[in-house]
């Protein structure tokens, strides 16, 4: 009987529960989640369209911003539609390979977004601290290499996670108490030693992100020192305004992500549904707010959006010929 209870198998599907204990509230939770997801997709899509179509936005800063918008779309789309399917259609099953793919993309987007924010901080450092050398330092060749390095680093850091999950034997249950698959949550279902999963899955990405945070902090300390040495009040205000939106986005990304990770790792007294709710908010709230912050704080983007909107309205209101 004991042998039967601990039969080792490789599950064809996992069962995602959504938010355990809050099943009665799934419908109500799905409404703001859906609205935030739609806002994130529409906002980031508009941002990408404006950056592509407005020639005055063809600069390294906006190239990195478009990468950030693409990352936000992928992060939300990897997780939220499945969560909504669980809440609305009770579609709890997810294939094992699809689950592993979801794990991969969630973690790649997290590490990638951190690297993009570092690249944006470097862009602002060059623009403010050595403005005369900006075009010489950040050529399109250099920007392209930075973009390729971001993608390559994110892929190489997270790719081993696939093998760490696929090597595990599973037993007893294939039920995942979450609304989407994440590395440690799936690994804990295994009947094998998952020490390497815990240390690699938690330590390696976090160490890389902490390095990014340290470099961003160094960049902004140098930026602030340069700003306060500028001769005029207007010059200081203009320099700070160009960094304001980026600082807001940095805080919106790192504060909830570190809080979510630390509570998941060390907050054993926090109820499970709180962990899951925070995880769902993390994958949709920053992607929703990022384009809003940049749209409000960046004059060039506001003008680009207004220009696009005016063109569309003019086209729609134009009288048909004849």
UniProtKB/TrEMBL annotation:
<feature type="transmembrane region" description="Helical">
    <location>
        <begin position="149"/>
        <end position="168"/>
    </location>
</feature>
<keyword id="KW-1133">Transmembrane helix</keyword>
<dbReference type="GO" id="GO:0004984">
    <property type="term" value="F:olfactory receptor activity"/>
</dbReference>
<keyword id="KW-0675">Receptor</keyword>
<keyword id="KW-0297">G-protein coupled receptor</keyword>
<comment type="similarity">
    <text>Belongs to the G-protein coupled receptor 1 family.</text>
</comment>
<feature type="transmembrane region" description="Helical">
    <location>
        <begin position="274"/>
        <end position="294"/>
    </location>
</feature>
<feature type="transmembrane region" description="Helical">
    <location>
        <begin position="25"/>
        <end position="50"/>
    </location>
</feature>
<dbReference type="GO" id="GO:0005886">
    <property type="term" value="C:plasma membrane"/>
</dbReference>
<keyword id="KW-0552">Olfaction</keyword>
<comment type="function">
    <text>Odorant receptor.</text>
</comment>
<keyword id="KW-1003">Cell membrane</keyword>
<keyword id="KW-0716">Sensory transduction</keyword>
<dbReference type="Pfam" id="PF13853">
    <property type="entry name" value="7tm_4"/>
</dbReference>
<feature type="transmembrane region" description="Helical">
    <location>
        <begin position="206"/>
        <end position="228"/>
    </location>
</feature>
<comment type="function">
    <text>Putative odorant or sperm cell receptor.</text>
</comment>
<dbReference type="GO" id="GO:0004930">
    <property type="term" value="F:G protein-coupled receptor activity"/>
</dbReference>
<keyword id="KW-0807">Transducer</keyword>
<dbReference type="InterPro" id="IPR017452">
    <property type="entry name" value="GPCR_Rhodpsn_7TM"/>
</dbReference>
<dbReference type="InterPro" id="IPR000276">
    <property type="entry name" value="GPCR_Rhodpsn"/>
</dbReference>
<protein>
    <recommendedName>
        <fullName>Olfactory receptor</fullName>
    </recommendedName>
</protein>
<keyword id="KW-0812">Transmembrane</keyword>
<feature type="transmembrane region" description="Helical">
    <location>
        <begin position="240"/>
        <end position="262"/>
    </location>
</feature>
<feature type="transmembrane region" description="Helical">
    <location>
        <begin position="62"/>
        <end position="88"/>
    </location>
</feature>
<dbReference type="InterPro" id="IPR050402">
    <property type="entry name" value="OR51/52/56-like"/>
</dbReference>
<dbReference type="InterPro" id="IPR000725">
    <property type="entry name" value="Olfact_rcpt"/>
</dbReference>
<feature type="transmembrane region" description="Helical">
    <location>
        <begin position="94"/>
        <end position="118"/>
    </location>
</feature>
<feature type="domain" description="G-protein coupled receptors family 1 profile">
    <location>
        <begin position="43"/>
        <end position="294"/>
    </location>
</feature>
<keyword id="KW-0472">Membrane</keyword>
